UniProtKB/TrEMBL annotation:
Domain of life of the organism encoding this protein: Bacteria
Protein name stated in the entry: Nucleotidyltransferase substrate binding domain-containing protein
UniProt cross-references to SMART domains, sorted A to Z: CBS, cNMP
CDD domains in the cross-refs: CAP_ED, NT_GlnE_GlnD_like
Pfam families associated with the record: cNMP_binding (PF00027), DUF294 (PF03445), DUF294_C (PF10335)
């Protein structure tokens, strides 16, 4: 029977062949009849049970409360392996077969195999890392910039002629040179030399400093390659200087970076940059879903995917903004996105959530025709209209700054479910295009308006408790024919609860993971709780993305089918939902919600 032991499930998948054989040699099989008590409170623990077949229920004897149910491949009593004695009753609900591993053998494996030990010693974050080891591409994502992936920088004097610089590029097979001139460094590329000689008809003897770009973009040696990629995409460039402190250490070229990174996200960034009309922009936007799937299939961690997609989505919207709004308006208004896009937590495209803040001397009527055009452009790019019409083609979401500030004050003072919904929408503003200072003033006024409003914040936080955590009375995942709504059951309570705490503490970050980090710095969260909450949220996003990709890339689908998940993922999901349940209890105490 030992040959039926499942070594494919964590943490046993971390064992070496010799460790697996040693486990089998020391493992027995025990049979328990229906209703039989396997363990009871106070009993000394001398073995770990791994269920081969059947169902076992964990009960709190004094409170007559069912704590959990365990089935095939589940383990119990893990706590007892370290405490030495059992705290609860474990009862077989049906005929049950268990592998029985002596505690001493279990502890020996813990000592010999750190990955195996991590599964039991770590919290949800540690278990998730053990269950889902990084793949090759995500190893690249975490690779740092060093001498192995940069090329030496050839520095030339600014008085070097165009002819001499061209010869250097050809002789040394380089794409760029660093130009030193008047105490500054600039970048000179082969394209710069071509345009200077042919288009500007500069003589071969002209000094190269007139062609170099002295607004040098740089990264630090030791930073992540991924951050260099992000910088190139955001700045719309194909190379950066690499510095070690203040000293120039070399150049990192896009071509070098892409020799290790094959998702072609740079191609999409360049296509967005070079689009001259909405048709070309739509062609670029159509490849976003393919990029997400490629990144996901190659094992890139979801927070990195979100960061990259947030940058690319911002570029798409910024370009659409430039197409839709007359240039003379760009410094008189600000486009901001809200909701998941404002939090940089959108992966696959969902509906539009955006608004315009206008200069006080600009009226909504003057910009609404162009705002209507912008909304049509976004729809063309794959962002469907918002069912609640939170869009710039709706006059309610196009206001001068003074009007917006009065509107925020009204919502705060009303303190109704409807006003809470409005505040939740605008609590995650992210600037896209126009004049950024308008968005900063908007957010500053919002944080000041809710400061010290304890009743408002309590009722606002109470929205996180609207939906039941999808756990059964026994602590297992609640099953439904329609599937598990992971947004209502897991994502929304975390996002809304953290948002309420962020508003209370005047935290300006809008991304939920960044808010959790900031709230931990402010001692609102203990580090362990913060890690577990972040890991739970990432798991919810990950599972939702996998289901959405499986259903054809439908970014609106929020349903999971737990029955289709591997056991270790169901185990992680159950653990994560318990993290959410504990977080809700924290919100109840912190905001005194039960007393309302």
């Amino acid at each position: 029977m030992q040959d039926k032991f499942n070594f494919e499930q964590p943490p046993f998948n971390t064992l070496t062949p010799d460790e697996r054989q040693d486990l089998l040699d020391q493992t027995d099989i025990a049979y328990f009849g229906r209703g039989e008590t396997i363990l009871e409170p106070g009993q000394l623990i001398d073995s770990l049970h791994i269920i081969l077949k059947g169902v076992v229920e964990e009960r709190h004897k004094d409170r007559n409360e069912v704590l959990a149910q365990y089935t095939t491949d589940d383990l119990f009593d893990i706590r007892g392996q370290f405490d030495g004695e059992c705290r609860h009753d474990y009862v077989a609900l049906e005929e049950t077969l268990c592998f029985v591993l002596p505690t001493q053998a279990f502890l020996n494996l813990m000592t010999e195999n750190s990955d195996f030990a991590a599964w039991f010693q770590h919290d949800l974050k540690g278990r998730q890392q053990t269950a889902e080891p990084r793949k090759n591409l995500s190893e690249f994502i975490l690779t740092r910039i060093d001498n192995s992936n940069i090329q030496p920088a050839m520095v030339i004097d600014g008085q070097t002629s165009i002819f001499q610089a061209t010869q250097l590029l050809k002789t040394h097979h380089l794409e760029s040179l660093i130009v030193a001139h008047d105490g500054s460094f600039g970048m000179l590329t082969g394209t710069d030399l071509l345009y200077g000689a042919v288009l500007n008809e500069l003589p071969p003897g002209e000094p190269v400093h007139v062609l170099a770009s002295f607004n040098l973009v740089s990264v630090q040696k030791g930073d992540f390659l991924f951050n260099a990629l992000m910088l190139m995409v955001q700045k719309k460039i194909e190379r950066v200087a690499v510095k070690e402190g203040e000293q120039l250490a070399g150049i990192l070229e896009m071509t070098q970076l892409l020799s290790q990174f094959s998702t072609h996200s740079h191609v999409l960034g360049l296509r967005i940059l070079r689009a001259d009309n909405i048709d070309e922009l739509a062609e670029a936007a159509a490849t976003l879903g393919m990029l997400v799937e490629n990144l996901h299939n190659n094992g890139v961690r979801l927070p990195f995917i979100m960061k990259l997609l947030a940058s690319l989505n911002s570029q798409l919207m910024r370009k659409a903004f430039e197409f839709a709004f007359a240039p003379e308006l760009h410094d008189r208004l600000a486009l901001m996105v809200l909701g998941s896009e404002g939090r940089s937590e959108q992966v696959l495209k969902t509906d539009q959530d955006n608004a315009l803040i206008l200069d006080n001397d600009l009226s909504a009527a003057e910009v609404l025709p162009q705002a209507e055009q912008f909304s049509r452009y976004l729809e063309r790019l794959g962002y469907p209209p918002c069912p609640g019409r939170v869009m710039v083609n709706n006059p309610d979401w196009v206001r001068p700054l003074d009007d917006w500030q009065q509107c925020l004050d009204r919502w705060v003072n009303r303190n109704t479910p409807e006003s809470h919904m409005q505040l939740a929408i605008v609590a995650d503003p992210h600037f896209i295009a126009g004049r950024e200072s308008l968005v900063r003033q908007f957010q500053k006024h919002l944080l000041a308006a809710v400061k010290g409003r304890e009743l408002l914040l309590s009722e606002f936080a109470g929205q996180a408790l609207r939906f039941h955590t999808p756990l059964t009375f026994f602590g297992d995942i609640k099953q439904s024919d329609k599937g598990l709504d992971i947004k209502r059951g897991g994502i929304f309570p975390v996002v809304q609860g953290v948002r309420a705490l962020a508003l209370e503490q005047s935290v300006t970050e809008t991304n939920t993971l960044e808010r959790i980090r900031r709230l931990t710095d402010l001692h609102i969260f203990e580090p362990e709780q913060a890690d577990n909450l972040s890991a739970a949220l990432i798991l919810f996003w990950q599972l939702r993305l996998e289901q959405q990709l499986a259903s054809g890339g439908d970014g609106m689908n929020q349903r999971l089918n737990p029955a289709t998940l591997p056991r270790h993922q169901r185990d992680l999901l159950r653990h994560a939902l318990h993290v959410v349940k504990k977080f809700k209890q924290k919100l109840e105490v912190h905001f005194q919600i039960r007393g309302l």
